[in-house]
């Protein structure tokens, strides 16, 4: 569910945002994907823990 939302959100963001012309695009991202971050946050809120360390 989170992955489907992120795919839809990324498609809409790419459609309506301006991109800089001179920026070099790399083949591989060095960060976590939005779906991975959303999944971690969903599991944290569902776990019952109070502190996210």
What do you see in this structure?
With 53 residues, the protein is mainly α. Helices cover 55% and strands 0% of the residues. The protein contains two helices and no strands. Helix 1 (2-16) crosses helix 2 (34-47). The radius of gyration is 15 Å and the shape is elongated.
Tell me the strand percentage band. under 5%
Quaternary structure type:
single chain
SSE pattern: HH
Biggest β-sheet strands, sense, barrel: none
Structural class: mainly alpha
Helix content: 40-55%
Q: Radius of gyration, rounded?
A: 15 Å
Number of contiguous helices: 2
Low-confidence stretches: none
Question: What distance lies between the first and last C-alpha atoms, to the nearest angstrom?
Answer: 25 Å
What's the pLDDT, averaged over the residues?
80
Organism: Alloprevotella tannerae
Protein name: IS982 family transposase
């Amino acid at each position: 569910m989170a992955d489907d939302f992120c795919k839809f959100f990324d498609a809409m963001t790419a459609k309506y945002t301006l991109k800089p012309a001179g920026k070099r695009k790399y083949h591989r991202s060095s960060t976590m994907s939005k779906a991975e971050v959303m999944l971690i946050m969903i599991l944290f809120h569902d776990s019952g823990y109070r502190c996210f360390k």
